Amino acid sequence: MPSQFDNTYHNIYRKPTFDDDANKRMWQVSREADEVLEVAPAPIPTQEMEREYLDFLQEDFKSDPWVTYRFRKYTANPKRIPWKNTRQLKRQYQYTFCVNWAVGSLLFWPIAAMVGRRMKVTRGGVPVVPLNRWVHDFPHPEPGRTSRITFRYYSFAATVLAGYCFAR
Questions:
Q1: Which domain holds residue 97?
Q2: Structural domains in the chain (count)
Q3: What are the pLDDT digits (tens) for 131-157?
């Protein structure tokens, strides 16, 4: 770093003074890095470049969805292509995740059926019975209804949970 700072109007044209060669070298490296990382202005487009861009945009508009909740993101602007790419990657990830979830659920189904079968009876081996309030107008006298509903609930819950863990 320079040992003194000049904050006058002619600061740009002065030569800095350094304490030693290491400080001078560090200042030069940081200045070079600033100049290298400076954003170069875009070239002025020619008429041919504009025609190519409009042709590209016309073809690209054909692949846009007709109905979307973020329709302004698909307008012609500099963020259009990154938005479409991000959206495509997100949809691809969601599709892959759902397929893996379904595969994991199907692979776990035999074990989930065992879980559902086990939950049809209590610890003592007695079949489960409905413990809800008695609705006298609409009774459900079917004897296997509660055990069937319990089996479905626990087996499907186990497949969904195991499929989600498999997909993650």
A1: 47-132+139-167
A2: 2
A3: 666 666 666 677 788 888 999 999 999
